[in-house]
């Protein structure tokens, strides 16, 4: 049927919805359950490896409230049966002005479900001298 989404698109969209819902509305420590045990996160250029290190980073971010608004997301299947997801949107932390962000996830099928093995996050901040 024309217009029907591929299974990897549905999985990607479901993961993104679950990830940002948990990030914005629950204890961020629970996000560890979405990662594989040896997962890697690069947050603004700083690397973290393993569920515990990733969860500690996300829990200790310097804000009390956050809201993500997803502008677009794209998913692709990889040649080794993983799913690559790129997310572009805005986030607002506490009373700060909204900022653009980009995030890339790599999902791998593990134990009958999907887990994030790689995650790269960057704010859309440009330091261009004027």
Could you describe the 3D structure shown?
The mean pLDDT is 93. This protein has helices at 7-25, 51-59; strands at residues 35-43, 46-49, 66-77, 83-93, 99-110, 113-123. The protein contains two helices and six strands; from the N terminus they run αββαββββ. With 130 residues, it is an alpha+beta fold.
Question: What are the key terms here?
Answer:
130 residues, alpha+beta, six-stranded mixed beta sheet, globular
Mean pLDDT: 93
Low-confidence stretches: none
Strand content: over 45%
> Order of SSEs, N→C?
HEEHEEEE
Biggest beta sheet attributes? 6 strands, mixed
Instruction: Tell me the strand order in the biggest sheet.
Output: 2-1-6-5-4-3
Structural class: alpha+beta
Summarize the helices and strands and which ones pair or pack.
Blueprint (H helix, E strand, L loop, with lengths): L6 H19 L9 E9 L2 E4 L1 H9 L6 E12 L5 E11 L5 E12 L2 E11 L7
Parallel strand pairs: 1-6
Antiparallel strand pairs: 1-2, 3-4, 4-5, 5-6
Summarize the structure.
The protein is α+β, with helices and mostly antiparallel strands and 130 residues long. Helices cover 22% and strands 45% of the residues.
